[in-house]
TrEMBL record:
Lineage: Bacteria, Pseudomonadati, Pseudomonadota, Alphaproteobacteria, Rhodospirillales
GO molecular function: DNA-binding transcription factor activity; transcription cis-regulatory region binding
Keywords: DNA-binding, Transcription, Transcription regulation
Pfam families, alphabetized: LacI (PF00356), Peripla_BP_3 (PF13377)
Classification via InterPro entries: HTH_LacI (IPR000843), LacI/GalR-like_sensor (IPR046335), Lambda_DNA-bd_dom_sf (IPR010982), Peripla_BP_I (IPR028082)
SUPFAM superfamilies registered for this protein in UniProt: lambda repressor-like DNA-binding domains, Periplasmic binding protein-like I
Annotated HTH lacI-type domain residues: 8-62
Name assigned to this protein: LacI family DNA-binding transcriptional regulator
Entry-linked SMART domains: HTH_LACI
Entry keyword Transcription regulation: yes
Length: 346
């Protein structure tokens, strides 16, 4: 045991663990060149000696930072929370420190937290842009000349690397499923104007209708908040029109949950009175009443891919955008059109 009056050095750790000083340095840097058993010996020696690694001083010596900003638009949404888990796991495995902030879909808060993270030495950013993020802000953070990767939501006109699921393909897959069940009046519910994700998913929905020779009725595209409240309000609006749809593709699972609740309030049931399909396949989707048909997205995998993309940017390696695979998970909320479907005037 070293004297309490003397600071423990890497030489002390190397002697205690029976390795070289350079090996200790590699362990502290999180290098994959060190064998697992050797790393364990070094870490055990550090614990015995009470050594604390001063990352701030190391960053000053290398003129780099191991802190990376994680700016998430809505951590109350399970989908984005799962993305954050994937990002954090990948960054910590690589030896980086994630600095997390939740913007609550507020662009002004987003600007403040990203500036604060920059002032605290963040070496790069992974962020899910808040609704309303404009091109001006994007160009401002681009001027910082730091690696930046957007997750889920691209910002048009700005050349950030991005990671997102196949929104167009997923929406087309879901709409084709509903057409195959016999539905001809299919609505699209949720999302706000200017949201790239909504535009992509609506594009896939409309492409499937066109391929089947079905008209895209503008009255069946309902813009609403991308959450439960939006789904609740939107399904009420759809059911109140003279010729309501027999099926609805929701912007995401949260909107679909609101739609299911709206049907329940009216004594109706998804899959029988109105086919409902979500998008994301978050954990609760399999446990609704009835269980929700949805387009499955691997949230954690998207988060991990985003983190690896940012790390590649930090190393100066060539990178490109990533489009994640999706698949349709069919459950009880989507059934064929009923013979006596709901009409508001009966």
């Amino acid at each position: 045991m070293s004297s309490p009056t003397r600071k423990v050095t890497m030489i002390d750790i190397a002697h205690e663990a029976g390795v070289s000083k350079s090996t200790v340095s590699l362990v502290l840097q999180g290098s994959e060149l060190v064998k697992d058993d050797t790393r364990d010996r070094v870490l055990a020696a550090m614990d015995r000696l009470g050594y604390v690694y001063n990352r701030g001083a190391a960053n000053l010596r290398r003129k780099t930072s191991e802190v990376l900003g994680m700016v998430i638009n809505d951590l109350t949404n399970p989908f984005f929370a799962e993305i954050a888990v994937g990002i954090e796991r990948a960054l910590q495995t690589a030896g980086f420190i994630p600095l997390l902030a939740n913007t609550g879909e507020d662009p002004s808060r987003q600007a403040r937290v990203m500036q604060a993270m920059r002032e605290h030495g963040a070496a790069g950013f992974l962020f899910c842009p808040a609704i309303g993020t404009d091109e001006g802000f994007a160009h401002e953070i681009m001027s910082w000349r730091l690696p930046i990767v957007t997750v889920m939501r691209r910002i048009p006109g700005v050349d950030f690397r991005s990671v997102a699921p196949d929104n167009v393909g997923g929406a087309r897959l879901a709409t084709e499923h509903l057409i195959g069940l016999g539905h001809r009046r299919i609505a699209f519910l949720g999302g706000r104007p200017g949201m790239v994700v909504m535009e992509d998913r609506c594009q896939g929905y409309q492409a499937a209708l066109a391929a089947a020779g079905l008209p895209a009725d503008p009255g069946l595209i309902v813009e609403e908040r991308p959450n439960r409240d939006g789904g609740l309000a939107g399904v009420g609006a759809l059911l109140s029109i003279a010729d309501p749809p027999t099926a609805v593709l929701c912007f995401n699972d949260a909107v679909a949950f609101g739609a299911l609740h709206g049907l329940w309030e009216r004594g109706l049931q998804a899959g029988r009175d109105l086919a409902v399909v979500g998008f994301d396949d978050i954990a609760n989707a399999a446990h609704t009443t009835p269980p929700l048909t949805t387009v499955a997205v691997s949230c954690r995998t998207l988060g991990e891919r985003a983190a690896h993309l940012l790390l590649s940017e930090l190393r100066g390696e060539p990178t490109g955008d990533h489009i994640g695979e999706v698949r349709l998970v069919v459950r009880a909320s989507s059934g064929p059109p009923g013979q006596d479907r709901y009409r508001p005037n009966t």
